[in-house]
């Protein structure tokens, strides 16, 4: 997954800023929109959305460093207008964190993900389905890029949420299987083997 538009971020798009078709045309259109918004008072939300679309366009072309720059500018605009804890920042935060993972700097993503989780918890609650989706998506990106140290706390959080369904629930086994992969990647082979045994035990009994 390279476009993280979840939770409060669904459906946020600047009008007149296409993200399909010819990327060069879309980029020119977005630049024009941004130049216009930068001189209009009280346009910070629209400017933030336009910057996010600019980042998504770069992301679709595999330009993760460029995408991170655009998402960072979007976040800066949003923070200036809304403060650091407004839910409207979630699209910029999630996309920026994803871009940082994809460009191979998970340490830059870690504080961003922490903010996403904190804001999402305050808005939705600690076990809301949208929070679970975000954690799953971040985890998949981490596994894709072998960012095992970053994936571990995300999976532990998912495990805590899934355990509310029962220790033998199939979704618990899925999380533990991913955690076993992480431990294997971190060289913690004994812990990985113990988790695989639990996974097999759960699956045999369910």
What does this structure look like?
The protein has 206 residues and is an all-alpha fold. Helices cover 71% and strands 0% of the residues. The protein contains nine helices and no strands. The chain has helices at residues 23-37, 44-60, 64-82, 90-102, 106-124, 129-144, 148-162, 170-185, 189-205. Helix 8 runs antiparallel to helix 9 (189-205). The radius of gyration is 19 Å and the shape is elongated. The model is unreliable at 5-19 (pLDDT under 50).
Spell out the key features of this protein.
elongated, 9 helices, 206 residues, mainly alpha
Topology:
Elements: H1 23-37, H2 44-60, H3 64-82, H4 90-102, H5 106-124, H6 129-144, H7 148-162, H8 170-185, H9 189-205
Helix pairs in contact: 1-2, 2-3, 2-4, 3-4, 4-5, 4-6, 5-6, 6-7, 7-8, 8-9
Write a brief caption for the model.
By secondary structure, this protein is mainly α. The protein has nine helices and no strands. The chain has helices at 23-37, 44-60, 64-82, 90-102, 106-124, 129-144, 148-162, 170-185, 189-205.
Number of strands: 0
- In round numbers, the mean pLDDT is 89
Which structural class matches the secondary elements? Answer: mainly alpha
- The percent of residues in helical segments reads over 70%
């Amino acid at each position: 997954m390279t476009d993280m538009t979840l939770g409060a971020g669904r459906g946020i798009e600047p009008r007149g800023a296409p993200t399909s078709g010819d990327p060069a045309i879309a980029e020119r259109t977005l630049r024009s929109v941004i130049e216009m918004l930068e001189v209009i008072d009280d346009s910070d939300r629209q400017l933030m959305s336009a910057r996010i679309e600019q980042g998504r366009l770069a992301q679709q072309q595999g330009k993760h460093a460029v995408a991170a720059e655009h998402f960072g500018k979007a976040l800066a605009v949003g923070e200036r207008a809304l403060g650091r804890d407004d839910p409207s920042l979630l699209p910029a935060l999630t996309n920026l964190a994803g871009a940082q993972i994809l460009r191979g700097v998970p340490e830059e993503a870690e504080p961003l993900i922490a903010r996403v989780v904190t804001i999402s918890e305050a808005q939705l609650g600690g076990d809301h389905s949208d929070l679970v989706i975000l954690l799953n998506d971040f985890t998949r990106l981490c596994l894709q890029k072998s960012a095992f140290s970053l994936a571990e706390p995300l999976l532990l959080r998912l495990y805590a949420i899934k355990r509310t369904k029962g220790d033998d629930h199939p979704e618990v086994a899925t999380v533990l299987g991913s955690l076993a992969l992480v431990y294997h990647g971190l060289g913690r082979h004994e812990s990985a083997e113990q988790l695989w045994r639990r996974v097999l035990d759960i699956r045999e009994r369910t």
